[in-house]
Amino acid sequence: MEFCSPRFREIVGGLEGLIGGLAVGALSGVSYWWQDWRAIQLCLTLPSILALSKYCFLRESLRWQMVQGKVAEAKKTIEFIFRWNKLAADPSLDDKLQDMSDALVAEQQLEADYTWLDCFRSPRMRKYTLAQSFMWFTVLFVTYGISFSINELSGNLYLNLIIGSAAEIPVHILTVYFMHRFGRKKPLLAFYGSCGLMCIIAAGMSGNIDLETPRTAIIFTARFCLAGSYAVVFVYGSELFPTVLRNTAFGICIFCHTSGGVIAPQVILLGKVIHESVPFVIFGSCCLLSYILVLSQPETLHKKMPDTIDEVEGRNT
After folding, report:
1. Is residue 136's pLDDT more than 90?
2. Is the pLDDT of residue 63 over 80?
3. What is d(CA 59, CA 80) in angstroms, rounded to the nearest whole number?
4. Using CA of residue 269, residue 271, residue 275, residue 276, what is the dihedral sign?
5. Which of 139-148, 175-184, 203-212 shows the lowest per-residue confidence on average (mean pLDDT)?
6. Which of 49, 44, 6 has the alpha carbon at shortest distance from 26?
7. What mean pLDDT do residues 260-287 have?
8. Which residues contact 19 (CB under 8 A, 6 or more apart)?
9. For 254-305, what is the HEC assignment?
């Protein structure tokens, strides 16, 4: 995201969620046709083996080459890009690459002086880190919770998953437009708010056989809202955190994100022990709390990504 032009950040974020949705839909289709765990495992493993072939045609990261001082290799990479795009070579490329390499090495050394604790030492960084961590947690927590509860909804399990994943495709495309047109906060508020309300409504309809079909439709709508929020939080977080702590802050957010996926199945079990409405009350509450946290975050549309903590704290603006 750091190397992506601001006008393409929304597209990158949308693709991140879109590919994940396509993968879930493909897995559902495979499971429908081959309802044997060995066949499913084989279908999951083969793409991973094919991915090894990228070593033969993918070049090393340009940033890594520059940070490591491999200017000659970086020059070959850029010249390949020039040839691929049929662009004229830059005669001052050597000097520019050396200057960029020196700057990146200095930046890398600066990043090494920071730890994860720096995400919590200053007021705004602490607010951003805590809010973003919970927002990332909510996305996977509620998404997994809804996905794991699909087998209890009316209709065919496999068909429900395939339809749900296919319907996410236009959601991700629309999310790209919404981010470009309305920024980050407004779409995220709409997604979290809608999902929270849908989950609370679904919880109130639990146990009523006559309302199973509309309840299924409401739960799928909530899932679509979460699909859109996934693309937004990925872009939003990258634009909020400074360069010197972006990787570290993302690591904290991803840890919380993954934790949501671990906790979700346990919450589903609460529905069997206490009441079937309990999981969706919890899911809805998390979404509504995330809605409130989004209100505390600044808008980042068309804003320069911060490089230092001082820029985040507004000390040198």
Report:
1. yes
2. no
3. 10
4. negative
5. 203-212
6. 44
7. 90
8. none
9. HHHHHHHHHHHHHHHHHHHHCCCCHHHHHHHHHHHHHHHHHHCCCCCCCCCC
